[in-house]
Write a structure and sequence with these properties.
It comes from Winogradskyella aquimaris. Keywords: Membrane, Transmembrane, Transmembrane helix. Helix 3 runs antiparallel to helix 4 and helix 4 runs antiparallel to helix 5. The termini are far apart. This protein has six helices and no strands.
Length: 159
C-alpha cells in the first residue's frame, strides 16, 4: 500500500505541477491580452480625440459660414433675430446681405397688410420675394429680390 500511496502522491504532485504550469501560462496570456487591450484602448482614445478635434473645427467653420446665417434669417422673425445675433459676432458679407433682404421683405409685408384695399392679395408679393431670397441663400449667392432688392441693401446698410 505504501507503494500505491507513493505512486498516488507522485501522480498528485505531477498533476499539481501541471496545474501550476497551466495557471502560470494562463496568467501570462491574460497579462499579454491585457497589454494588447491597453494598447488598443490608447489607440482608440487618440483616434477619438483626433476625430473630436476635426468635428469641433468643422462645427466652428459651419457656424461661421455666412450661408447658414443667410438661411436662418429666413425662418420667421425669431430666425431673423438669431441670424442677426450670429452675424453680429462674426460678420459675413453673405449673412449681412440676406439679413437686410429679409428685413426689407418683412417690412414690406407689414406695410402692404396695413393698406385696406389691397391687403387681401398683398401677401403674394412678399411671399414670392421670400421664396426667391431663400433660394438665393440656399445657393450661397447674393441675389437681390425683384423690384426692391437693391433698395433694401441701400436702406439697411447699417446691418
Amino acid at each position: 500500500m505504501s507503494d500505491e500511496n507513493k505512486d498516488l502522491g507522485d501522480e498528485l504532485n505531477e498533476m499539481i505541477g501541471d496545474a501550476k504550469d497551466n495557471a502560470k501560462k494562463a496568467g501570462e496570456k491574460i497579462s499579454q491580452k491585457t497589454n494588447e487591450f491597453k494598447e488598443d484602448a490608447k489607440e482608440f482614445a487618440n483616434e477619438a480625440k483626433e476625430k473630436a478635434s476635426e468635428f469641433a473645427g468643422e462645427a466652428k467653420e459651419v457656424l461661421s459660414d455666412g450661408k447658414n446665417v443667410a438661411i436662418i434669417a429666413h425662418i420667421t422673425i425669431i430666425g431673423w433675430i438669431i441670424a442677426l445675433v450670429m452675424n453680429g459676432s462674426n460678420k459675413t458679407e453673405l449673412g449681412s446681405y440676406y439679413i437686410r433682404q429679409v428685413l426689407g421683405i418683412m417690412l414690406l409685408g407689414i406695410v402692404l397688410s396695413i393698406i385696406p384695399v389691397i391687403n387681401f392679395f398683398a401677401w403674394i408679393l412678399p411671399f414670392a420675394m421670400w421664396i426667391m431670397s431663400l433660394v438665393g441663400s440656399l445657393s450661397g449667392e447674393k441675389k437681390p429680390v425683384f423690384l426692391l432688392g437693391e433698395q433694401f441693401q441701400d436702406w439697411f446698410k447699417g446691418l
